[in-house]
Structures
1.
Amino acid sequence: MSKPKLFIPGPVDVAPETYAAMAGDTIGHRGADFEELYASIQPGIRQIVGTSRPVFFSTSSAWGVMEGAIRNLVQKKVLNLCCGAFSDKWYGVAQSCGKKAEKIQVEWGESIDPEAVRAKLSEGGFDVVTLVHNETSTGVLNPLKEIAEVVNSFEDVLLVVDTVSSLSAMPINFDELGIDVLLAGVQKAFALPPGLSVFITSDAALERAAQIEDRGYYFDFCEFAKNDAKDNTPSTPAIPHLYALRERVKVILKEGLEHRYARHQENNAMVHAWGAKHGFELLPAEGFRSKSLSCFKTPENLDQTGWIKAVKEKHNFLINGGYGKIKGKTFRISNMGNETPETMQELLDALDAELPAFLS
Ligand SMILES: *Cc1c(COP(=O)(O)O)cnc(C)c1O
């Protein structure tokens, strides 16, 4: 039997067309063929991100760019907005880069309060804020627009936003929001295999980076900008991933962004309705719930491990049994990428079929 179809919140299921696209010819990256490939992706990906600025391609997972943003931008002190596994870890990464860091920490399952950000920034001394838009570990969707407005009201404070599990699933407009760095790995909402990240930088971010001497090489934002001017990347990129990205961007725009957002919303609502039917409670509060995944609290009377295993063994579908410190206490279902109401229904039917045997 083939590997289970992934309904975990990343990596997610990859379409056969995407795998096929990855099998394109290997080309030299310092030449016209590559420049053509690079340039051909730009208009579409910029539309998805809502920007007229270049989108850079990093051959790394998202953490490469997340750490890179710290190295490129933090001169004084970073404020990390922490509400789950990924956002919490960013604080640790900032410290391990030798940067001064402070955090606002909320309980896992809660969202970041823009007014708390205002109060903290008012203390002064900060020059960067990091925010995870859609905290994949808890299913919390943070109020990006409101937080961006607060950060933008402080001069010389740059906003870095992780949209790993939201970009292309929910509306995000880089230019309108006034973000300084937006980044995403491609193995979640974009439904590519892991191995590539995309990111965008503002002028202010590039100006800041240019002033920082020990920003390193591999994730040097100035190198990305310099090479982008020649439709190229600083070092040899994952060319198969760029073929795949070109293919997915075409598919995304063919569906249409509004339709894509609506499909995610509909699939997500199906999962929520299914959960409500069983009395499963969502971890995040109403109004702060992701549209690309659902994180439920595990009821006391459910043998979650057994249930997930049975669904995998009998139906070949995989959901996730919680991440980090809420592993075993929550379970998560992704509706990212290419899923449709039909494929979501197949999953929910399989979950239903196995559930009674694991409830006590
Ligand atoms: C998965 C994820 C990451 C980390 O991505 P890697 O590909 O493991 O580097 C970061 N942030 C969020 C919100 C994620 O969901």
2.
Amino acid sequence: MSVRDNIKAIEEKLPQGVSLVAVSKFHGPERILEAYSAGLRIFAESRPQEFAAKVPQLPADIEWHFIGHLQTNKLKLVLPYAKLIQSVDSFHLLEAIDSWAVANGRVVDVLLELHLGAEETKQGFSEEEIIRIVSETSSFPEMFPGIRIRGLMGMATNTDDMTVVEKDFERIEALFNRIRAFGLEGFDQLSIGMSADWPVAVRHGATMVRIGTDIFGPREY
Ligand SMILES: *Cc1c(COP(=O)(O)O)cnc(C)c1O
């Protein structure tokens, strides 16, 4: 199937109001343009160098998201071009993004990444850490003037067992709803679901799904 057909097949099943984020990592500009001409406008990358090299080659009305682990010495490659950093996974990174934003007169939208799933290597905050950050920033907005926390991101356990995936998404959905009750301004995005599990994520309140393989096929490593 072509990229266009793949997108159509996903869009037919995706409920209104859930954003489709096309994960274009490891795919070149031509493939990205195929998805663009099929109507997609939100794309996500996970490696700073690759991200910075691609952005100038592609249409300016693309909304770029960053979804990979971000080291603070790579911020300059990413923050000027990204509309949303989905993968904030440490307090240190929050502080560094805030400093960059203040120095550049910007406010950066971010999602906090919850460590979901069994994999030990996976990045992310614990639930307690996320609650603490959100409580502190709502009590003391002057703590991070350069950051707006827009919601949560998570990756489910990498398994074919959908009952495990379901439990992971239940957990992040519950945390998301708990935090929404704090009334934090702009906290309205839940980014869960990838090619293998996005229909499950949609049932658990996803407001955006991040899909690579189901759009572009296997990555061109
Ligand atoms: C690569 C990646 C995706 C997309 O994965 P697919 O299985 O190709 O859909 C989604 N989210 C993150 C954080 C990724 O790194």
3.
Amino acid sequence: MTETRTPGFCALCKSRCGAILVTRDGRLVGQEPNPAHPTGKALCVKGKAAPEIVYSPERQLYPLRRTRPKGDPDPGWQRISWDEALDETAAALARIREAHGPEAVVFGLTTPSGTPIADDLRWIERFINAFGSPNTAYGTEICNWHKDHAHAFTFGRGIASPDFEKTDCVVLWGHNPSAAWLDHATAVSAARARGARLVVVDPRRAGFAARADEWLRVRPGADGMLALAIAGEMIANGRYDADFMRDWSNGPLLVRADTNQLLRAGDLAVPPPGAGWGDLVAIGAADGAAIGYAPARGTYAGGAVPLLDAAATLMGTDGAPLACRSAFALYRDLCADYPPERVEREAWVPAEQVRRTARLIFEARPVSYYAWSGLGQHTNATQTDRALALLMALTGSFDAPGGNVEFTRAKGADVSGAAFMSEAQRGKCIELARSPLGPGRNGWVGSDALYDAIIDGRPYPIRAMVGFGRNFIVTHADGARGAKALAGLDFHVQTDVVMSPTATFADIFLPVNTPWEREGLRVGFEGSQRAENLIQLRPAVIDSRGEARSDGRIVFDLAQRLGLGDRFWNGDMDAGLAAVLEPSGVSLETLRSRPEGVSFDGAPRYFRYRDEGFRTPTGRIEVFSSALRDIGQDPLPRFVEPALSPASPLASAFPLVLTSAKVVHYCHGQYRHIPSLRRRMPDPEVSLNPDTAAARGIGAGDWVEIRTANGRVRMRARLDAGLDPRVVSAQYGWWQGSAELGLPAYDPLAEGGANYNSLISDRAADPVSGSTGLRSSLCEIVAVAARPRGEGGQDWGP
Ligand SMILES: Nc1nc2c(c(=O)[nH]1)N[C@H]1C(S)=C(S)[C@@H](COP(=O)(O)OP(=O)(O)OC[C@H]3O[C@@H](n4cnc5c(=O)[nH]c(N)nc54)[C@H](O)[C@@H]3O)O[C@H]1N2
Ligand SMILES: Nc1nc2c(c(=O)[nH]1)N[C@H]1C(S)=C(S)[C@@H](COP(=O)(O)OP(=O)(O)OC[C@H]3O[C@@H](n4cnc5c(=O)[nH]c(N)nc54)[C@H](O)[C@@H]3O)O[C@H]1N2
Ligand code: SF4
Ligand SMILES: [Mo]
């Protein structure tokens, strides 16, 4: 018996925990924590289930071709060779590209935060760019877009990294690292042990909520109001960094009352001294006179100091008075619309707790924070993100040690090939019709927009899909509409490890291997500077099972067949990897001989803005966002209720607010087939307050039906006294059975099944991002006798 122990990392989720990969006689037998690795202190239950994931009988190991019509419950799968599969795929893609342009092909991409696709993302992106499609359905609108991209409306960059090692106050807002990012959880625990304060904003008493100084049990989707209220308390009591806001935000700039636009020097009869026509205007602290601000230079004329909170009436070019107030004054007033008592009534957080939190956040600074799905899956998510960003700006912790900072990542080349696609082609992204500033800027499309394009041909027909894992039917709102769209495609190829419900609609299925069967190059791990300094090439520690291959191999081979080989090093993946590594100065050979990786000595870039300003239109943190105003959105983060809320007419029939969350055992729709995981979490669960249950005659463990205006699903009741009696939280992602345990599969399209997302409509979406109300729906819960439809997997599924 030969045992090998190879340093690597678990690639299954965002945490990418450093691990020792253990094999025996060519078989993977386990993963163990690797404390020497910057993210290697612990592994979760999924990471420990690695051998089961690899050797599961549910895996698909051979390319398949459909032989029966779409929509037929039996696709009539026929095993074919890789050459046949790739030839047919390339021919279909070439045909559609020829007839309708590459934009008629959408790419579906699963998430690198919850699958190991991160190993090969760079190659897939390169392929999309080389092929020329401006449409990628990435799910970013319901995942990371708000924290990573909407945040830039305020800061000119994403949320970046909480500096947990130096912080004195951690804020987790709609982020539960205990289930979703193990390495973050380890870092928060360490900060807590050092004495850092902790604030958790979550409708559930999950993860760190129980250990927090303040756990704010917000009504799902009311976070924007809560953030404004806390900010309002801070401002009203002078507990904010006024100098920072004056010097580094656009708060001092004047806004015209008549147009609700930033005042320009050219609007005035007498422009401020030294100001150019297009310069912006503030009121000087020295003498109360108007002063010019040049956004391009990021300076006030003559180095004058502005007033943050100002009101003035100046003379316009036509001699009429122009009433103006500073952006900060407008923001202060907006916050004042949400006094703690109102928030207690409407956002369900006690007024006293709002006050305490406002005090704590300021007094315990520097504050580092993280927000994720809890804020992103609402139809008001973009403005909520703005409200949170501005609240955090008030602490002055931005880019400060212990705040949210940019660690320096080890150097790797960006090989995504963005330059392959012309600007004109990018402009065809269907998502740009919703918003010129949303995910469409990066070529990412919301599933609602995608379904419109396939089903209704709006704005033009999408005819084919190349799906890399993404399981639309289960993970996006309105599974039935998703199915209708998928059934309407002329051609669909799907790569996956298992036969997902979305894959059952494909014409060609391509089997993907698991991370232990392929190499994975990681340039920089997230979470800390030490992690970002590491470059590691995880070796393939076992052979691929059956004929499964990596997505990388698949796109390299497809590129050859589509005449794009010259952009793919003529099929030589090693040459591609060498290109990635080129700027690092580390060779592929070195990394292959040192699986523990190579570390650099990068340091955090604190206070970068002091040299470079902010990458926003005004060069400052944007209290007032002209960019949003220009696309018809509110330049201030005014709170709007989610599309469905207790204020909606539907609330009389569906009185409970419905939200969802991740569980540690699974990633999204995956791993229900893995015995060690399914045993721990055998049934789909909905959590509700014991009083809410009792009022409906529901006991712990009973099967219940969750009903919304969009559908009905069944789950098992879990009683959770920590929940507000008006809120329920349910699991999503249920479809797969575990044959090994004899536990059922559930038809994701059946009324009375277990697919959470069939409860949600995709007809209302955030106007900028396209996010849907996965976490702010309305429902009623009733007791039922039976499990969800599709029991046993006999009447549904492959
Ligand atoms: N085990 C596991 N880990 C994962 C994943 C997985 O599927 N499983 N997926 C990965 C991916 S792709 C992602 S995006 C991340 C997500 O990581 P997180 O966003 O941290 O995880 P979630 O559980 O989705 O949501 C966080 C919290 O938001 C709360 N929440 C629900 N509604 C609201 C609300 O309206 N307001 C607020 N403030 N909070 C709310 C939930 O109760 C939950 O505790 O996790 C990654 N890691
Ligand atoms: N109600 C509700 N819905 C949600 C969420 C929620 O919190 N609540 N969360 C949302 C979020 S944050 C996200 S990111 C999405 C995720 O949505 P999806 O990306 O659709 O996530 P999964 O269900 O995990 O599907 C991933 C598929 O990829 C396959 N896979 C695994 N490894 C690989 C690989 O290396 N290559 C390929 N090609 N495939 C692979 C898996 O077998 C699985 O079938 O779900 C969203 N949906
Ligand atoms: S948290 Fe679990 S699944 Fe995610 S990388 Fe770590 S061990 Fe793997
Ligand atoms: Mo995600």
4.
Amino acid sequence: MSSLIYLDYAATTPMDPAVADVLTSFLTIDGCFANPASRSHMLGWQAEAAVEKARKQVATLIGADTREIVWTSGATEANNLAIKGYLEQFKGLGGHIITSATEHKAVLDCFEYMEQLGFDVTYIVPDVSGRITSELVAPLIRKDTRLLSFMHVNNETGVINDIEGIANLASGSDIVFHVDAAQSVGKLEIDLQNTPVDLMSMCAHKIYGPKGVGALYVRRREGLSIAPLIHGGGHERGMRSGTLATHQIAAMGESFAVAGALMTSEQDAVQTLRSCFLNDLSGTSAITLNGDQEFCVPGIVNFSVSGIDGPVLLTALPQLAISSGSACTSASLSPSHVLTAMGVSSELALASLRVSFGRFSTASELVEAARVINAVVARACEG
Ligand SMILES: *Cc1c(COP(=O)(O)O)cnc(C)c1O
């Protein structure tokens, strides 16, 4: 095999061709290109109808009402809008907020910013499983706790946090619960009608939609108001101004509809790929899997290799498009903050790989990936 094997689905997915078709039908003079806020002509109404269809597709997948969906530029913006937009009303008053040390930087950096503004922050550190449970969260809740923020699925390890248990802790109190669901939506069943999550971040490009579009779910409930980060024409009920990107939004809606239709069969297929891949890797004791292997999504495998220098490991696998740690931090040579929070040594964390796959991955790609990884590990063990 000469071409690169793409095994970095957790960083971004290729767009589904059906989704790309929808996207391109909103661009040119032949298409539905008008401004969805144009109220004075038919073309504007058609664009608005496309946006509202997509809003329904997104809401349907997660058990939400269409009035609870706010379009954003992605999960990073949704996380910022949720955390900073909710806590804005407590500026000067402060209060206590809780997250975990294993979150995406888009959440961690918001918490650091809120800390500078005077909020008290608790960062929960998981055990070696990497899983955040309600038992870990419960004893840390205080009278002045205002916000909990936990990701549903970790982007580096694939570990599934106990979102339902944590949601039930916060339910019935004034505490607002935010979930970063960028890695879980379309892969795990999410029913917000029965799970008391208040705010949930999503994006399209982890689930075969385009980059640069996402949404924040904002539960319609008393006392939950979100101040905008971006002021302007009052779009999205004042929470996020700016002309809506019809092509991106319609494509996101389509990607969510497709994901909903395929969810069960796709996850079964990915689980089969995972089992074969893990079986192929199991020959060497130099490989240790990272993260809970029961509560995890099938499409992400994270492992450390002992006896090899981290940077050497990745450069020895030029045939594979994979990540060491997370793509967001791979520009720097610091070990993954997620793995080190789980108690993995810096040395092993640096010699860790994340292999992630999905809809368009094939068994032969994973067989080949395991073969080249095994060869590199075997060479390192000899040397
Ligand atoms: C990818 C990702 C983000 C960032 O989403 P963007 O749409 O790229 O801004 C946030 N959180 C998690 C868990 C992610 O995997």
